[in-house]
Amino acid sequence: MRVGDDVHLFQDTCHVYVLRGGRSAVLIDFGSGAVLDHLADYGVDEVTDILVTHHHRDQVQGLARAAAAGIRIWVPPVERDLIAGVDEHWRTRPLDNDYDVRQDRFSLLQQVPVTGTVAEYRTARYGHLDVHTVPLPGHTVGSVGYLVDVGGRRLAFTGDLIHGEGRLWSLAATQWAYTGFHPNAGMEGAAATVLSCLQLLDHRPDVLLPSHGDAVTDPPAAVARLRTHLTELLDMRRTAPWDPEAMLRAPWKPVTPHLLRNVTGMANSYALLSDHGTALLLDFGYDLTTGLPGGHDRSSRRPLLASIEALRRDHGIDRVEVALPTHYHDDHVAGFNLLRDVHGTEVWSPSHIAPVLHSPERWDLPCLWYDPVPVDRELPPDTPVVWREYEIGVHDLPGHTLYAAAYSFTADGRRVIATGDQQDTAWEPGLRPELLNYQYRNRFRIDDFTRSAELYRAIRPDLMISGHWQPFEVGDAYLDMLLEKGRRLAQLHREILPRDVDFGAEGFGARISPYRSVVAPGGRLRLEAELVNPFPGAETAQVEIVLPQGWRAAEQRIALDLAGHATGTARFEVRVPEDADPVERARLAVDLTVGTMRFGQQAEALVSVRSEGAGR
Predict the structure, then answer these.
(1) What pTM value is reported for the model?
(2) Is 604 helix (H, G, I), strand (E, B) or coil?
(3) Longest dimension (CA), the chain
(4) How many CB atoms lie under 10 A from the CB of residue 550?
């Protein structure tokens, strides 16, 4: 079926689009691969590239044939693991007590190597074509679409975003999470579909070419029809009507004229505007969220950049120059790499947070982003940094997590402090208590909230901005309450925890770094074990490394003399046997004795043995 000049449709398990250039072609999606048997019908001798819109099996079930033929395969960034790493996904996907209702199991049965991922928000060359890739979450979390100008028309290859003149190929696919407490719970993908369609129209496509169904020849009319019905369906579950245009039209709300809050993300991000036409962001995680999908794998978490265009359109911002993290958690930093790739944004980070960002595999912490986030500039603690016309104070802020920072600055004459997720800034005296947001696995320490309260009293801000709550007007009563509550929190921990053995709030006497490693058979790895003396007096800490059978350490046991409540580091070099079988996440541990008290295997680390050698 001819779609346009040198553009043909091959009907298979999905529509496969053949874009011809001379005697070669680029394909959009691949289906069963039967198209390779019909290339002569289109005057094509070879296929150079395949662009995949989403991971579903009907789109890619024959992809192994393409790989065997040496065809370059390009896939959506968020869904790479569901194609090139799907064996591991099948091995680890929970099946019992399963509340993850995404259709991530509608994936390849065996993984297929890919050439790379497509460049979202950008135009790149694939074969003979310049193709602009747009994120189109809806049918799946990670779906993308492709815009190609051919013969004076803009063609949009949209996967299963829309079917025919304003329907969906599948509603079930758009249910990304089990019904919960978010206003869009159970309808996350339906809401995302509406937003994706509206953003797609901004590119002014002449025709939409879906994976199933007829070509959409009147995109605005089809989107209007689909939007009307999906919005009504969404509103049946909501207490207030949903306004998708508001999310796209006005994602930023002013805190002050030069300080904006993004209200469309899962966590707050803030834009500090310079009169030079540039912006600095405080945090940037999951933009334009319609609800958190089920699952925790890479394909369930997607950063977007929808609100950045609004900074240019509505606030005269030419470039987002810098992004600062309040802490390392994914909902605050997930968009950093995409900001750098698309807009050239630099990541500046306090020096104690930077190692967690750029080497997440080394850390035994919750809420880590999947990929390393390179840091362009490390900021020393308690040393102000100048960006444009602003001087920004950088302050260590342990509590919610050990790896967190506060930032203080003046915007439009108001003293502001950004505190991330430290406390919820929702205090109403006599009505609602303030939440001190500590999590033990984040490495909370007993006196952290006393120290943060003392920091706030020293800075005396007019306004506090936080990670998930409204900006808060700060007064003396609030500062006094935080200090009193921080002190009481510390006192209660000391009343409840053992007095004679003090491992602090975390409750462990050892920690191994790196927590995750990859090594080849016959390879070596170096590990550091941080040890704690839980007693008030000096003691000798003895630590023995516990290894898988056949593995060896240069020193099996190490002794350290530690002052009271002090820490020390034992360093081990481990050798993996030459004939070691490949294994994922082999466990090793350190067994700790301090003085005469044995605490046992206090910390573990995970080591994967792979023939390709070191890597994540």
Answers:
(1) 0.95
(2) strand
(3) 84
(4) 11
